[in-house]
Design brief:
Order of helices and strands: EHEHEHEEEHEHEHEHEEEH
CATH superfamily: Copper homeostasis (CutC) domain
Oligomer: single chain
Strand order of the largest sheet: 1-2-3-4-7-8-9-10
Number of domains: 1
CATH architecture: Alpha-Beta Barrel
Shape: globular
CATH class: Alpha Beta
Strand content: 15-25%
Structural class: alpha/beta
Largest sheet: 8 strands, parallel, barrel
Radius of gyration: 17 Å
Number of helices: 8
Number of strands: 12
Length: 232
């Protein structure tokens, strides 16, 4: 039986530590989450690595919600990836697009730089309007994970596509459901075949998104209960 993996998208060191205390299995560290998320500061990457042994993945995104990169931006992306590698980070979260499809040329460069770290293709995938060819491209490139809401605004709207993606992936890549994951929809997502879940569990704190312990803890407990019951 595959264990469930719960990944917290943490907007700060304090959010990451809250999520770890609540029992998550992995952290995706970013900053500026309230606007879509960007590459975190180097100082935070170093600090979090010093504070925990659980897997850390780093969002590599120079500008929030922008997935088409100039040569200068690609150079900065590779610089950030090399920094993560040198500081014992477990994985990076990235996505490059061109002409409404996966930018295979840029992704090959990015993945070459990133290995042997794990590579997640992030929700840039969800801005596209075609599933099968782009999914197969991501698999062929050698990405380890795909983070997706099913090419819809959230997992509730994209649940049918998430099921389709899992079937098409055929265990050649791990599918992480993200975008509106919460305690009310995790059982349905589990029934669809999702085993890796991505959420921030955030509430606004002085106009800044911070992970809430109870939100994360309740999701952790429910998912592990579902998984242990072996109902589906």
């Amino acid at each position: 039986m595959q264990d469930v993996i719960i990944e917290c998208c943490a907007n700060s060191i304090s959010s990451a530590l809250t999520a770890i205390k609540a029992g998550v299995d992995r952290i995706e560290l970013c900053k500026n989450l309230e606007n879509g998320g960007e590459t975190p500061d180097y100082s935070d990457i170093i600090k979090l690595r010093e504070l925990t042994k659980i897997p850390i993945h780093i969002l590599i995104l120079p500008k929030a919600n922008q997935f088409i990169y100039s040569e200068n931006e690609l150079e900065k992306i590779n610089q950030d990836i090399n920094f993560c590698k040198k500081n014992n980070i477990d994985g990076v979260v990235i996505g490059a697009l061109e002409n409404n499809t996966v930018d295979r040329f840029q992704m090959k460069k990015i993945i070459k730089t990133a290995k042997p770290m794990k590579v997640t293709f992030h929700r840039a995938f969800d801005t596209l309007n075609e599933i099968e060819n782009n999914l197969h491209a991501i698999i062929k490139l050698g990405c380890n994970y795909l983070l997706t809401s099913g090419q819809k605004g959230n997992v509730d709207l994209g649940k049918e596509n998430i099921e389709k993606i899992i079937q098409l992936a055929d265990n050649n890549i791990k599918i992480i459901a993200g975008g509106g994951v919460n305690i009310d929809n995790i059982e349905l997502l589990y029934k669809l075949g999702v085993r890796e879940f991505h959420l921030s569990g955030t509430l606004y704190n002085n106009s800044h998104l911070e992970t809430n312990y109870e939100i994360i803890r309740n999701v952790v407990k429910k998912l592990k209960s579902i998984n242990n019951q072996k109902l589906y």
